[in-house]
Amino acid sequence: MSLEVADLTVDIAGRRVVDGVTFTVPDGARVGLIGESGSGKSLTALAILGLLPEEADAGGSVRWNGRELIGLPDRELARLRGDEIGIVFQEPRTALNPIRTIGRQIAESIRIHEPVSREQARQRAIAEATRVALPEPEKIVRRYPHQLSGGQRQRAAIAMALACRPHLLIADEPTTALDVTIQAEILELMRSLVESDGMSLVFITHDLAVLSQIATHAVVLEDGHVVESAPVAELLSAPRSPVTQGLLRDATATLWRPGPASQIGGMS
User: Fold this and answer.
1) What sequence ranges are listed for the domain ABC transporter (predicted)?
2) Could you tell me if 74 and 157 lie in one domain?
């Protein structure tokens, strides 16, 4: 299954904040949307899933496996979310309900889309907690979000997003709020799960160093426009736009070295 975004626009209160964004995500590809704060990358992701705020209007085209998503009724979009397209947000508190246990929330995401019993969903929740390397999964599924660390909450959010084995995962700056060590662990976890499940990935970040660890192709945004689109390896070796050059300077200033994903090359 492929994602095709063509001439996407987003207007908020009469102001255009995303203007003509175009990119494709072939089946199994890992594509990054990168840019500074306010570049339009997160709004692009929300537009794909039909999660824009009420005052926002989306135009252009977003086609998922040939099906147009712009203008699709909320009920039909809801069927796609979590089943065919999963999403992980920057702050897991956005995705996790503070008054429900972790296990119940993972199980609910399964029961919404699959005809399984409550007990089957509970066992699946434990299995998903195990898959994302949460410690003592049978115990941790009985805990509430506030009883988990930031990294554990993000692992739980990933488990929810992937529980139904979606074909596409959209990750909106999922490691920004984490310290460097936990950030590296979450990136490695996501990359291994995406590869093992054969999913496509749209990874959103402002950090080229982070992007190099997980994506093979990048779309660079500035002020709602695409300013460059190329394999990550090419951006690292010969960035063309001033925006990408600035992102590369910021990355190298952190004593970063290219990671495994950046050495793979571009997508076909």
Assistant:
1) 3-248
2) no
Among 133, 165, 197, identify where a domain stops. Answer: 165
Both 217 and 161 in a single domain? no
What 3-state DSSP class applies to 219? strand
User: Which runs of E-coded beta strand occur in the chain?
Assistant: 3-12, 15-25, 30-34, 56-64, 67-68, 85-88, 168-172, 200-205, 217-222, 225-231
Same domain, 92 and 133: yes
Length of the chain: 268
Domain count within the chain: 2
Q: What is the pTM of this model?
A: 0.89
**Under 8 Å between Cβ of 41 and 34:** yes
Using DSSP bridges, classify how beta strands 15-25 and 200-205 pair: parallel, antiparallel or unpaired: unpaired
Average predicted confidence (pLDDT) for the chain: 90
Nearest CA to 207 out of 223, 187, 191 is that of: 187
pLDDT tens for 63-113 read: 999 999 999 999 899 889 989 999 998 887 777 999 999 999 999 989 989
Q: What percent of the chain has pLDDT over 90?
A: 77
**Side chain identity at 231, as an amino acid letter?**
P
Q: Domain range for residue 40? A: 1-84+168-268
21 and 43 Cβ atoms separated by less than 8 Å: no
Query: At 192, which amino acid appears?
Result: S
CATH code of residue 216: 3.40.50.300
Q: Other CB atoms closer than 10 Å to residue 52's CB: what's the count?
A: 18
Task: Say yes or no: 134 and 244 in one domain.
Answer: no
